[in-house]
Amino acid sequence: MVEDRPRDHEGGSEGAARPGDGDGGRAGRPGDGDHWLAQPDVDDIELVKVLHALGDPVRLRLLKVYADGEQYSCAPDLLGLAHLHKSTVSHHMRIMREAGVTATRVVGRGRYVQLRRADLDARFPGLLDALIKALP
Fold it and tell me: Which of 17, 40, 51, 84 could form a disulfide with 44 if both were Cys (CB 3.0 to 4.6 A apart)?
């Protein structure tokens, strides 16, 4: 378990957008520096893009990390990816976010990522369970 990550507090930031709220994850409370990066709405998540995003060993490793539903810092060493450059890890995270697999919350200069489990389960029932079960 990664210890340097925030807990996802339900209703923690009043007015802040949550993944899957239908606003593309862009809204946040003005001036608090806490917001979600742009991501596709649930209805716009495409199976081909999800499968492409998960068709890389590094991104499958990230899926396994994110499978517990917690939010994780983007630091490569905390994700078990210390052998990769920070920009490479950032690239993999962007691919996953733009495909609708993950949501990224910005807090000041920090970024925290979590799996969009409920959205993906609603859109493609059983897909994540099958993928996660198949991972070593």
Answer: 40
- Do 100 and 40 meet the contact criterion of CB atoms below 8 Å apart? yes
Return d(Cα 102, Cα 134) in angstroms, integer. Answer: 19
pLDDT tens string 83-115: 999 999 999 999 999 999 999 999 998 999 999
Sheet holding 110-115, edge to edge: 34-36, 102-107, 110-115, 72-73
Under DSSP, the state recorded for 77 is G
**CA gap 120, 123 in Å, rounded:** 5
- Give the rounded distance of the alpha carbon of 62 from its chain centre: 9
User: Measuring CA to CA, how many Å separate 22 from each of 25, 53, 94?
Assistant: 7, 21, 19
Are 13 and 29 in contact by the 8 Å Cβ rule? The answer is: yes
Give the helix ranges, DSSP H, for 1-136.
47-53, 57-66, 86-99, 117-123, 127-134
Q: Quick one: which of 60, 77, 76, 75 has its CA closest to 115?
A: 60
